[in-house]
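Why run this: before we spend reagent on co-expression, it is cheaper to look at a predicted model of the complex and decide which construct boundaries make sense. The entries below are exactly what would go into the expression plan.
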Amino acid sequence: MIWKTLEYSGWGRALKVTGELARPERRGDLLALPPAPAFGLRRSYGDAVTNGGGRAIDMTRLDRLIAFDPATGLLEAEAGVRIGDLAALFAPMGWLPAVMPGTGFATIGGCIAQDVHGKNHHNAGSFAQHVTRLTLLMRGELVEVAAGTPLFRATAGGLGQTGVIVSASLQMVPCKGAAMMVTERRAENWDEHLAMLDNSTATYTVGWIDGTAKGEALGRGIVEEAESSTGLVKDHIPVATVPMNAPHFALSAPIVRAFNEVYYRRVPARGRTSVKPVGAFFFPLDKILEWNRLYGRRGFHQFQCVVPLASAPALREMLEEIAGSGLCSPLAVLKRMGPGRAGYMSFPMEGYTLAIDFPNRDAARALIRRLAGRAVEAGGRLYFAKDSLAEGTAMRAMYPELSEWRDEVRKADPDGNLITDLVRRLGLRSAA
Amino acid sequence: MMDTTWIILGATSAMARATARALAAQGAGLLLAGRDTNELALIAADCRLRGARMAEAVAFDARDPATFAPLLARASGEEGELNAAVFTGSMPPQAEIDTNPALIGGMLADNFTGPAEFLHLLAPMLEARGGGTIVGVGSVAGDRGRLGNYAYGASKAAFHTYLSGLGNRLARAGAHVVTVKPGFVDTAMTWGLPGMFLVAPPEAVARAILKAARKRRNVIYAPSFWRWIMLIIRMVPEPIFKKLKI
Ligand SMILES: Cc1cc2nc3c(=O)[nH]c(=O)nc-3n(C[C@H](O)[C@H](O)[C@H](O)COP(=O)(O)OP(=O)(O)OC[C@H]3O[C@@H](n4cnc5c(N)ncnc54)[C@H](O)[C@@H]3O)c2cc1C
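The model came back. Tokens follow.
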């Protein structure tokens, strides 16, 4: 059958919907479908990847490599190709995707449509800045879209609203091999943490933050810096699958506090350097399949905001509120971003980005709403890839190029066939 | 693997694609045969970039024997070990067959007569080279005629019987035949069908297929637990079986 009715959700599993999905296996099958929003591996946490009661197209079977030029590192591939597969295949030949999110289970299409960032955003910018052209299925026709054009800028970070990305050309970056030289150092508190991120000269830099630490230790964490390296290291393969929903206490406050303490102390006070497989460095969580079940049946939310450099004090206050809440999970990331962004609706701005997971509870939802308010006041913005709770007026105000995006989207999809639950909830396409 | 060539019939199917990719990663040469040549060209490029020594799209239609000779000619040009894997097949819903029995002929061509005629033309080449493997993909549906898909099942049963005879013949020349009986596999064929359970990813079936070819197994179920499910289904006495709606 073409359409399968099923219950599904984004990665956070907090918002479940019932809808119809098609999963074309051949190019011709895709072209024969009526217009509908396209989804990748649904690693977006919230309702960017749901269309409750409606239809959507799962692109994961259209995952062919089309052409590669070993002289220049330019790769053409279908939208369903996984980033992790690209890293595994090309790193031994000396090339890596220029930008990789924290999971290898993200597709090229999803990475373009959220204009994702990686641990090298401060140097390399966003994913779609390395896309030289793409093929879009728009109003039933295949359209070539060159980087920099208004249609491209509406498609990069554009949440699939301009059409189905069928394939794209990516400029990869040279690497030394399939390994990474990783240095980990403790940051004892917030100020030290920010200073280490500010002063880092590494290609890849990211901070893990202990969201349970308070007082003197507020903002403590581990700063990881990495460069590509040669060396033979074992392939990164999943080691376990979470077989079922965990009980709700699995990530309760005392357990998270204890875990974070161990995680922090595991890096010696003087720091340490090691060689890791490419996958282990970029996609540490992919080792455990279906880890989102750890949050239990009710699922979870991720809060991610970015604030301008000057608003660092406001971000510190947000962290104080999080630490005081006892709601946060071990997954918390702090990173300094550069200004790079490719689309009207791209998330990045120069500043600091904080991402933290919370179990889906009333208290956590209320906390996330308060944090969102603080992010707005700080002149920052929230990330569509993670959001499922924000309120439309505030969210629209965070994206100053919204009207440019709307103009292109209106032309590309005049009948609103590509609207997803997130776009509907936030009123992104309605005239202001 | 550098001097092996695999002919993949029905190469646009999800199971065939997963198998072709796994072979590409080993550096094999691939002749990707099927009807949708645009799609085959995409798969061929993908296989080349994933390590295939050679990968070419070749037109092939199980219902059109005129397409067989050019493919065989192309294959004979490859030196070294020659192998073939047959994934062609179609499964019109039993209800459609009930209203239009004329559909049976075409289905039989896709699932049995076309592949069998082709393999009969190929067999002498394997015998002449004194080796090689033929993988034929049948189905658990061929193990017993069930209310829901007995016409399809019959075509697969015919193919199983053919493959077992062909295996007997080729063994005398050092070549080998593997019959693969997949259960429910997560492909376009099963997408959205009611009553699916324990659905296996095509990559898992591909791994099982290549392992069976390497180990020269005769008949495998994929995933392997289907052997036990089908054992039970085959053992149900006919009077009782007739009352079951499975
Ligand atoms: C563990 C983990 C770590 C992560 N780390 C990061 C990180 O470091 N940086 C970061 O930026 N993000 C990160 N993310 C978020 C993730 O990278 C993005 O959500 C990404 O979009 C996921 O890709 P996907 O293929 O799953 O796309 P989906 O989530 O399925 O889709 C994302 C959006 O793209 C659209 N889309 C998908 N495919 C197409 C297509 N072919 N054509 C048109 N539109 C399409 C969808 O409609 C949707 O709006 C992380 C997520 C997880 C689970």
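The radius of gyration of chain A is 21 Å. The longest helix of chain A spans residues 362-377. Bring this page to Monday's planning discussion.
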